[in-house]
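Cross-check.
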Amino acid sequence: MGLIGRLYPRVFVNAKVNKKIDGVDDIHSIHVWSVDSKEIFLSCHLVASSSDTDRILKRVQDTLKDKFGITHTTIQIEKEKICDSGLICEDHAGG
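Predicted model, tokenized:
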């Protein structure tokens, strides 16, 4: 899986996505894995207070593809970090 497999997911995603895309307030519950040496998958919760979530989602997906080659994503968009509201969101992989 190369370099991406040696990084904590929250560290690399926050450094490259959260800090560069307007409207992304937070990223958490990040999971990154590879089924083979060619495909990298990512799932996460993305906090976006903006009402234009389709634009934000497209920019995040484009950034993940362009910067990391990640084309398979499942991204849950939240208006606020629901984990802070008492719902369970755990990051088991360092993020």
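Helices lie at 9-18, 53-68. The chain has two helices and three strands. Passed to J.P. for a second look.
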